[in-house]
Write a structure and sequence with these properties.
Elements (H helix, E strand, L loop, with lengths): L7 H15 L11 E3 L6 E4 L8 E3 L5 E3 L5 H8 L5 H55 L9 E5 L10 E9 L9 E10 L12 E10 L3
Antiparallel strand pairs: 1-2, 3-4, 5-6, 6-7, 7-8
Length: 215
């Protein structure tokens, strides 16, 4: 049996004419998915049509993606930056927090300075009383034990220029010890530094003791 020879060029022209009469222009895509038949340049039947709820991807030849296939693209589309209102709210919260922290630090600094001033004042008062006790043991009629008031102004105390000290001694304070007793009172004044770095109101610390002669 002889097979009829088919001119490839003629067959190609004949198919092109059939496509034009059928309204299909070669190279034009209709947006539908087709299966290419074996040994044929004509598209076959549709694979499947667009299902309801599917989205057509016009940028990729009309292919559609189901909802489960678009999670990555949807996440990228939903990712966005902060709005102006969100930035302003965050800045306001930050400013309020920083203000509270600074205020707390100022109060803490003021408390530390007040405690330091009181501790130093107590030390200066005890220092003066120890000196008077030592003098009373060495010489009861010494000048430092005479009745009266001694004032040490600001800047006159060594290593304590921010403090002033007043010492008051009274003879015969009364009671059963009139001749051999003296009443000594030491008052230390100081001005603590506030949290803002300024000097606060002057404070005082009083220490009182009784000096007794052993002679």
């Amino acid at each position: 049996m002889r097979r009829a020879r088919v001119d490839r060029a003629g067959n190609r022209r004949r198919r092109r004419d059939q496509d034009i009469r059928a309204g299909h222009v070669p190279g034009q895509h209709d947006g539908q998915r087709h299966v290419q038949r074996s040994r044929s340049r004509q598209p076959g039947r549709d694979v499947h049509r667009d299902q309801p709820g599917e989205r057509r991807d016009t940028g990729r030849g009309g292919r559609c993606h189901g909802p489960h296939q678009c999670q990555v693209n949807r996440a990228r589309a939903e990712a966005r930056g902060f709005t102006l209102v969100e930035v302003l709210v965050a800045a306001f919260v930050l400013v309020v927090g920083l203000t509270a922290v600074v205020t707390g630090l100022q109060y803490a600094r003021g408390g530390i300075e007040a405690a330091r001033g009181e501790t130093t004042a107590a030390f200066l008062a005890e220092q003066r009383l120890e000196h008077l006790k030592a003098v009373s043991l060495a010489s009861w009629p010494a000048a430092d034990l005479r009745a009266g008031t001694t004032v040490e102004d600001y800047g006159s105390i060594a290593n304590a220029s921010a403090y002033r000290r007043v010492t008051t001694i009274a003879d015969s304070p009364g009671g059963t010890c009139e001749e051999r007793c003296k009443l000594a009172q030491v008052t230390v004044f100081y001005r603590p530094v506030t949290g803002s770095g300024q000097l606060d109101q002057e404070r005082r610390l009083d220490v009182v003791t009784m000096l007794v002669s052993r002679n």
